[in-house]
Amino acid sequence: MNRNAIRTVIVLATLSIIGIVLIQMFWMQKAFNLKEREFSDRVHIALSSVAREVMFLSHDSTDVAPVRQLSSNYFVVSVSDTLHPYLLESLLINEFSSRNLRTNFEYTIYDCFTDSLVFGDLVTFSDKGSPDSKPKNLPRLDRESHYFGVYFPDKQGYIMGQMGIWIFSSGILLLVILFFAYTIWIILKQKKLSEIRNDFINNMTHEFKTPVSTITASSELLLSGQLDDDSLKRNRYYSIIHDESNRLRKQVEKVLQVAQFDKGDIQLSLSTLDINSLIRESVKSLHLLTEQKNAIIKLDTDPSDPTIVADRLHISNIVYNLLDNALKYNERTPVVTISTKKAHKGVTMTVVDNGIGIPSKMISDIFTKFFRVPTGNVHNVKGLV
């Protein structure tokens, strides 16, 4: 699947997810409004019942005063006389419990004769349904009659608690979105890895074809007999075949190392090494490239205690690759400084060069499998790393 197809799929899938989320939010709001209306209706019915009971107990034959809802969670009921607080509280608790309105509420009683709020309590329902009371006053209304008011401070939470199926479905939707985001991340990561792997294969193919072509051409020239009388040219072509064969062998070893790392089959053969001696050997192995580039390699090694415990082959490869890259990726006369310094546990090795470097935005990718700074299809620098 090409990049445009992947981008189209991601965009369409994202739009679909956004549409589903908007629909879920719409129906969640609808369900909440429905529950809120249901809550208000049940409170109206409960408070009307309380008002009728109060009138019955006070032998009041007037019509039942309507329940007024002054805000989404504040209700008032007019009465003919001042109520006894504990009677009102008992009636409210019984009515709310019978109608399954077991949520905290505050109530207050207003006396128009004294023009004051005479009593106020907060009633909280415990897990067993028994209320606990703590004094707390509600704001007074400008009215010329007796009334009691009921306020529900936890109305939002109570209604949300009644929307279990909607909350559950929203949780499932959230999991789907997270799974979708993770899947997109995996797809993009695999796509990037595929591009890097293809670039690696292209470079590897190019690096194999170059020495093979050189070896083939040199061997054909030697086999033709044209150089039988010129020993200097013949030896030069022998040297070319030898050098290109070594180069091809090193490239094969690198590919095999990548395969071993990928399988996790690497087994280290640890031994005590002299890191300074190993660095000098690596510098010596690159003398041909150093001469071609007119490179300057400076050694600043600490002779105090250069011994380390490591795998000689892999440490050699690390040092060789660092030096090789420092020489190859340089548009000027290469100047490479290699220094070692005794550390608390082991030796610190530093390689500094004046090459082109790596763009800062790609620093985080240097340990990514198959990664190489992209140069399109240009292979002006040899190598797989």
Order of helices and strands: HEEHEEEEHHHEHHEEHEE
Biggest sheet: strands, sense, closure?
6 strands, antiparallel
Strand tally is 11
Low-confidence stretches: 127-135
Helical residue percent band: 40-55%
The helix count comes to: 8
Quaternary structure of the protein: single chain
Q: Strands of the largest sheet, in order across it?
A: 1-2-6-3-4-5
Strand content: 15-25%
What is Rg? 42 Å
Overall SS class: alpha+beta
Summed over residues and divided by their number, the pLDDT gives a mean of 79
State the end-to-end CA separation.
27 Å
* Silhouette: elongated
Plain-language structure description:
This protein is α+β, with helices and mostly antiparallel strands. Helix content is 53%, strand content 18%. The protein has helices at 3-57, 85-98, 155-161, 164-223, 231-263, 275-285, 287-293, 312-328, and strands spanning 67-71, 74-79, 105-111, 116-125, 131-135, 146-151, 270-274, 296-300, 307-311, 335-343, 346-353. Strands 1-2-6-3-4-5 form a six-stranded antiparallel sheet, covered by helices on one side. The protein has a three-stranded mixed sheet with strand order 8-10-11, with helices on one face. The relative contact order is 0.07. The model is unreliable at 127-135 (pLDDT under 50).
